[in-house]
Amino acid sequence: MQKLKILLTIPNFDTAGSGKALLNIATRLDPTRFDVQIMCKHSKGDFFKVVEASGLKVHVVDYETPMRPIGKALLGVWSVSRKLKRINPDIIHSFHYSSDYSEALAARFSGIKFIYTKKNMNWGGPSKNSWFLRTLLANHICVQNTDMFAFFEGFSKSKFTLLPRGVNTIEFTSNDRSKSEICQKLELSDNFRYVICVANLVPVKGVETLIEAFNISNADGWHLLIVGDNNSEYGSHIKGLVKQKGMTGKVTFTGKTPLVKDYLEVSELFVLPTKNEGRREGSPVSLLEAMSMGLYVLGSKIPGIKDQLSNFPELMFEAGNVQELSGKMEMVFNLSQMELKTWSAKLTEHVLNNYSIEKEVLIHEDIYRKVNGG
To answer: Is the overall model pTM greater than 0.70, yes or no?
Structure first.
């Protein structure tokens, strides 16, 4: 049987979250059926070294073309199409988050089938026409949550597949390690119980809602961990808010760290307070990782999160609603250890049954065969 040659594309591996999602798929596709290769625009970023170490062939090609002025744009797209033709995959699958359609056009020029994954809730405004053209040129679109289908009215439903993110449930499993030992490693006190939020600090993540809710909660004995890159204007604002409210001793900012699993291991409650505006969430893997680890979770009632917690509506709150989130957090603070363990088992089972990385990979394989006519 001849293998299908799949070229997975992403602009860069600077943002390890998106790059890791791509690599999780690339390294798990059936090697007896698929020849998987990767293409990105440059080799910067620490995670690029991880990609190289995977053994997969990596092409470094600047494959995006500015689409104005149109004459110069078409020449640029044609040049990219010749580079794609030399690689000559059967299918190009783009993991690009943006509305760029030059890649799809270059694939068309080279006669290569093109798929993209819709990763966020951006659609209207200045980028609407670009999203329309990217969709029109694509042979298939992978949609990460059910709310996204509303963007594509007028297109054939057969052109779309719901493909939410999956989580490595083997990696993200609680190992019941000594809390004291992990806290010592992380330089945290093991006298606290921990609430955690894992998110790079950008405005859409709504972390100020969590901080304000935690501040007005009866949270005696609890401490808040903010895990993620805070080297930004918004990060400075959030740290200033903590200081302003006199919460310095109640909140720890870890910054960007490879030790996310360790921080989850010592925590009991995970909160994702993303706002219901802008790009929002596609299918937030951090929430799935927390559930897989057995944490109780709370998430704002927005696209993506609504799908993941559809079986547990009581775990959602209105985005930006400080009072509602505070009330739900206090409810968790008052649960017994037995009640927390019961929730832990339910949420872990939910991820295993619906959001495993193995399930995500199988859907990818089905899409590739379908697009190739198999």
So the answer is: yes
